[in-house]
Design brief:
The chain has about 240 residues and is α/β, with parallel strands linked by helices. The protein has 2 domains: about 35 residues, no CATH class; about 200 residues, Beta Polymerase, domain 2 (2-Layer Sandwich), CATH 3.30.460. The protein is about 35% helix and about 20% strand. The strands form 4 sheets. It has a 4-stranded mixed β-sheet. A two-stranded antiparallel sheet has the order 1-2. A two-stranded antiparallel ribbon has the order 7-8. Strand 7 and strand 8 form a beta hairpin. The longest helix has 14 residues.
């Protein structure tokens, strides 16, 4: 406002007019999105187009994750109208709505320094979780997504994108052992490549691990798990 030498009141009035006309989207105080012509009718811009600038504005680390990342790898489907972004723990989990934009920010106290890729988006780049980190996060945050039944198909689709290097890099460092157990169990159940399963099981053998429920439920504890991942399948996954 100072650079343009426009009085603050006048600038705010002009911004409001452009929001009402559909030229801008107000994502939050101080941050507005210019709607490109190709998205004028939808009044919705893909999060990959503005994520880098927005999270620089918030001064926080981030990456597109969960179903949003999976779609970039051709996994899952288009029915999800919410964009999922994992952010560093300094920002609380929250949901942001602005016109047709829906952002679900998931706060991570153990924000990873691994498994984050930069993908080209327009004239900039956007941070995206690798296939292995996407699988791990889908399992970790599954309750926020509707439970295990809502992520199985996407997890299975993502196995085709997994590499040995990615699996080893992520699952040797991911802080939640139960996630590694469940991921290994699911990938083996759905016939992921043997070299991927071998790497994941080698990662698990370096940690203490105990029987876990595939789907956490109140007043239910893991019983005998006869598989090597020690996962009690207490829900249907076919």
């Amino acid at each position: 406002m100072e650079k343009c030498r426009i009085p603050e009141y006048t600038a705010r009035k002009q911004l409001l007019a452009k929001v009402k006309s559909g030229e801008l989207i107000k994502l939050q105080n101080g941050f507005y999105l210019i709607i490109p012509p190709q998205y004028q009718k939808l009044k919705r811009i893909p999060v990959s187009y503005f994520a880098q600038k927005y999270f620089e504005f918030l001064n926080t680390n981030y990456y597109l994750g969960l179903h949003s990342a999976a779609l970039l790898y051709g996994a899952g489907d288009q029915r999800y109208q919410v964009d999922y972004v994992v952010v560093s723990g300094r920002i609380p989990s929250c949901k942001i709505k602005a016109q047709n934009i829906r952002l679900n920010l998931l706060s991570s106290k153990n924000f990873p320094e691994y498994g984050i890729l930069k993908k080209k988006s327009g004239v900039s780049y956007v941070n995206v979780s690798s296939p292995a980190l996407t699988i791990a996060d889908l399992i970790h945050y599954r309750q926020s997504l509707g439970g295990m039944s809502e992520i199985i198909e996407t997890v299975v689709d993502l196995t085709n994108e997994l590499t040995v290097q990615d699996a080893e890099n992520v699952f040797s460092k991911y802080p939640y052992t139960s996630v590694l157990q469940k991921a290994g169990y699911l990938l083996e159940r759905f016939d992921a490549r043997k070299e991927i399963i071998k790497v994941m099981y080698n990662c698990l053998k370096t940690r203490k691990h105990y029987p876990v429920l595939l789907e956490s439920k109140r007043r239910e504890s893991a019983g005998s798990a006869l598989n090597r991942w020690k996962v009690d399948q207490n829900t249907e996954i076919d």
